[in-house]
Amino acid sequence: MPPVIECRNLTHYYGDKPALQDVSWMLRPGRICGLLGRNGAGKTTTINILNSFLTPRSGRCLLLGEDSHQLTPRTKARIGYLIEGHIQYGFFNIRQIERFYSRFYPNWTPAIYYHLMSKLDITPRQRIATMSCGQRSQVALGLILAQNPDLIIFDDYSMGLDPGYRRLFIEVIRDYADDGKRSILLTSHIIQDLENLIDDCVIYQRGRVLLDMEADRFRNGFRKYAFATTPAVADAHDDARHIHVERGEKHSALYGFLDERAARDELAARGIPAPDLRPEPITLEDTFIALTGKY
Ligand SMILES: Nc1ncnc2c1ncn2[C@@H]1O[C@H](COP(=O)(O)OP(=O)(O)OP(=O)(O)O)[C@@H](O)[C@H]1O
What we know:
- By secondary structure, the chain is an alpha/beta fold.
- The chain has two domains: 5-217, Rossmann fold, CATH 3.40.50; 222-292, Alpha-Beta Plaits (2-Layer Sandwich).
- The chain has ten helices and 15 strands.
- A hairpin with a 4-residue loop joins strand 12 (236-238) and strand 13.
- Helix 4 (110-117) runs antiparallel to helix 5 (133-145).
């Protein structure tokens, strides 16, 4: 099966400042992919190329096999985007906007929309402009899901959502992709939300792909080992091998795709004694911070 999204050697500059440098990755059909990275890493630039707001300096993106800047109407109808700003038509209420949108989409499925709306604490006549930020996001989500797209791209869906709405959003997305036929790309800084959602992750760092792998390999393979700090311990970051040593006051840590034996060998090779080395549990967010840095 051909990829649903394919970014090929994307390079983009704003003036003479590089934002993306030779970035390549793909989203396979039926998968949920998290595009992650610290502030300014290049995620929105990529999304803007995908939705053809931006033309890259070089390289290209294919969406459902077509160039992202030359999508046919048929292919456009198979893609839903949730980008900042959500809904422009704030003067409608939820019923009016549903009727308005329904005319543009051949596969429109109102039940998906109204199911989600039934979970919101709003009155039927309430205008979208008077709803809270989180409620407007849910309306936007409902309007996208009702289009029944094969591919949905969410840029920073979590902005302004409280934990309850974030949870609802995640559950709705998971259910939507449950049949394994729809594909989803999302960006978010709330890494813990993605822990049990994403199948794949692509992590950017300063406009380059730092890591691109199945989330299970990432979740299960990346480990943290703690050991007592001694004078021999110094901070060290080997981005190419994804190995990091963090010196703490009393306890230090080694992070990497390493089993315990490889962790001992790694420290020994660095001249760091660690007789008390022990594995410690690690979350997806810890992993992200270990790989991309705290500051
Ligand atoms: N219109 C622009 N003009 C100049 N520089 C820009 C412009 N848009 C983005 N940049 C710069 O390009 C780099 C990548 O920005 P981008 O918005 O793609 O990052 P991001 O990963 O989406 O960040 P965030 O998580 O903070 O939204 C940043 O250094 C940013 O300052």
